[in-house]
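Form 7-S
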Amino acid sequence: MRILWLTNIPSPYRVDFFNELGKTCRLTVLFEKARASNRDESWADFNFENFQGTVLHGLSYSADSAVSFEVLSYLRKQNYDAVVITNFSSPTGALAIAYLRSVGVLYYLESDGGFRSGGRIKTWLKKQVIRGADGYFSTSEENDKYFLAYGAKSTQLIRYPFTSIREKQILSEPPSETQRRAAREALGITQPQLVLSIGQFIPRKGFDVLLKAFALQRDGVALCIVGGEPTLEYLKLVESLQISNIYFVGFKQESELRTYFTAADLFVLPTREDVWGLVVSEALANSLPVVTTDRCISGLEMVAPNSCGLIVPAGNVDKLSEAIGRLLGDSELCLRMRTRALEVSREYTIERMARRHEHVLRERLRANA
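Output:
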């Protein structure tokens, strides 16, 4: 089976997925850009092992997309059994869709997640691009609604487990209290309990809400935010809230993050909106209960129905503080959630993600033969 895949950048988790999928088919992947301008340099360190990866030439359009007419030269070959497009929101993806429609070639669209948004004009434009695919790979119920709103049919939806985690990255059991204490000591954290969060210091991530909620917690709890340098706005907020037990940590590699996950009692993603939220998968794989919002699709899909954390309204300081306090004050509940987190993680792996795609595409190829 020969598959052509169009996407924006070779992000680490996508390259892992392509390397896994490439074990079972002849996979060619076209990337719009080599890296996103708003990502850490480590995202440019990719290794194409089991697939043919090509970075197209084109003009940069946004942080992670470009305009490339070179894509047409690959589509004109028409020697692929399936074409999958994940960059359908970019000019290159839209160009590819227009060409495939003009020559009558079947194709699939895939999304990490999405919320319906925009006025009449934007909705009309999205419908022109999204409608007409042969199938839609969707991560969740919310993602289903997104595709349906823009022209997909319910019979065309294909659910798949989206993640950045490989099977080997999932802990076999929750860390012991001794292991957690040792991890906190290694990080220089003296408080007996730790709340962990990871992300960029941008308004959408909601760290201002987290800081306000954390200021309401009792003594003996530390907050660690990993992922970047706080701007002056956040530093002033910390000062005004008189928070002293907080640790701001820059970007960390996966191997370094393991110590932070081990040291933590729970993970919080206070996002105002995440169309998925891969850090939720990472936290669950490290046996952490997760507190996130009703605007985080991975939380709605993985956490809410599986009792491995709590969901709060986005932007609500009091509800977020209440959820954090509840988990920190109930060790038995946290332990149950830690165990359940690992069970859920095993259902969302790169390997399962690849097998699902391979099975669906192969079965559809047989049906169309």
